[in-house]
Design brief:
The chain is an alpha/beta fold. 37% of the residues lie in helices and 21% in strands.
């Protein structure tokens, strides 16, 4: 049986895989599981529900609200808000539960449901499994005064999140910086620009006009061409690319060149280390981060703790060890002094803050890391669950790693959110990376074909 929950909640095509009925059942099951686990306080439980700008989020959030209220949970419907904004509000409002309707960087027809527990952190795997096992079970429906209420936010919660973003700079100003922000026509369209402007930056906004259909449509962190062109055209110092729910951030320097999550982490890690705030001189990254990041950190006396792919695993390592910075090459970056999840706007603000404080360009700051050639091939139409156990594939990966030696590596893993296997190869040259990746991808396609 395929697990309903992936690495980032439940996702699928809205109204096909993810229906109103399923959304309601998930909400009810989550309320019951968390209540029985003692996650709710003695008072009446309160949940915050938010969504990104997809039109399907309207009916899905209504279904979630109905499910929670029918299970006796009071709901505050925050409306359109970034995922990290919801996480922040769940924490500061001491809410018992948060529910976010978003498929992050996925295309518009998709949507997803992500549950956050008290403190604004993602649910543990075993809680997700318990929720999944309770779907559709008979239960006692509360009546009368025991039924939950649904209250829309009056805008004050949204404003408090923007104030929090600005306040994280602790008075530092971004005056003199011209910044282009691409909000991917997503949840940050109404939060990122005001936060940067309130911090003193001159802002040019692109793809900040969501219509329910255009989220992530040739824009944002998955399509950087418009941002690169806009930075050069406007003579900007920096470009910030967010995704649909604004939990990731990629950047573009003044020349229009990409600065990915690895380079952003390198810049922020050195900054925190200089301030004595990088706990145990350790940065947390996943196995997909470029070897160039590990090499650059080693040269500056910083260790890199590498986890499984997924910001939840980065966060687990950070929480368990007290580490203060971690993230992914894709731009999910967690600065634990200010947030317990990846926050694209927060990351962008602190990257710009480092530029303002140092007087150095982003290109100069990012040059601390030299990226090794990296090739990623997604292999669809395969049985991804067999990727780690097929003996012929395992042997081929071992042989390829030996061939690459210290200057490269192979990472082969099933996607947590899509039906495919990812083959990633780093090597001393792009030609070698392409050759090894192509060879392994062909083998995966043949051995794991459905």
């Amino acid at each position: 049986m395929v697990r309903l929950f992936g690495t980032d909640g439940v996702r699928g095509v809205a109204n096909v895989d993810l229906t109103a009925e399923l959304a309601m059942e998930l909400a009810v099951a989550a309320a019951h599981v968390l209540a029985e686990a003692g996650a709710f306080t003695g008072r009446r439980p309160v949940a915050l529900v938010g969504r990104d700008t997809r039109i399907s989020g309207e009916f899905l959030s209504a279904a979630v609200n109905a499910g929670l209220a029918s299970a006796g949970v009071d709901v505050i419907d925050v409306g359109v808000l970034p995922t990290p904004g919801l996480a922040y509000l769940v924490n500061v409002r001491d809410a018992d539960l948060g529910v976010m309707l978003s498929a992050s960087h996925n295309p518009m027809p998709d949507n997803g449901i992500k549950f956050l527990q008290r403190g604004g952190v993602k649910l543990d795997d075993y809680i997700e499994d318990a929720i999944e096992s309770r779907l559709g079970e008979p239960w006692r429906h509360p009546t009368g005064a025991e039924v939950g209420r649904v209250t829309p936010d009056d805008g004050s919660l949204l404003e408090s999140y923007i104030d929090y973003l600005v306040g994280s700079l602790e008075g530092q100003r971004l005056g003199g910086l011209k910044i282009v922000i691409d909000a991917a026509n997503g949840a940050a369209a109404q939060t990122a620009v005001p936060a940067f402007e309130a911090s003193g930056a001159e802002v040019i906004a692109i793809h900040c006009e969501p219509d329910g259909l255009n989220i992530n449509d040739n824009c944002g962190s998955t399509h950087l061409a418009d941002l690169m062109a806009a930075v050069v055209a406007h003579g900007a110092d920096l470009g910030i690319a967010l995704d649909g729910d604004a939990d990731r951030c990629l950047a573009v320097d003044a020349t229009g060149a990409l600065v990915d999550g690895d380079k952003i982490m390198a810049v922020l890690a050195l900054h925190l280390a200089d301030q004595g705030k990088l706990h145990n001189n350790t940065l947390v990254a996943t196995i997909m981060s470029n070897l160039g990041l590990i090499n650059a950190m080693r040269e500056h006396g910083i260790q890199v703790d590498q986890t499984r792919v997924g910001d939840r695993y980065v966060l687990e390592s950070m929480a368990a060890n007290g580490f203060t910075l971690g993230g992914e090459q894709s731009g999910h970056i967690i600065i634990s002094e200010y947030a317990n999840t990846g926050d694209g706007a927060l990351t962008g603000l602190h990257l710009a803050g480092r530029m303002a404080a140092s007087g150095r360009s982003l290109a100069e700051l990012a040059s601390v890391m030299v990226t090794l050639p990296q090739v990623m091939i997604n292999v669809p139409g395969v049985d991804k669950l067999r990727a780690g156990i097929d003996p012929e594939i395992t042997q081929a990966v071992t042989a390829a790693n030996s061939e690459l030696g210290a200057s490269g590596r192979v990472v082969l893993r099933p996607s947590g959110t899509e039906p495919l296997v990812r083959v990633m190869v780093e090597a001393a040259t792009i030609e070698q990376a392409n050759e090894v990746a192509g060879r392994l991808a062909d083998l995966v396609a043949t051995r794991l074909a459905l």
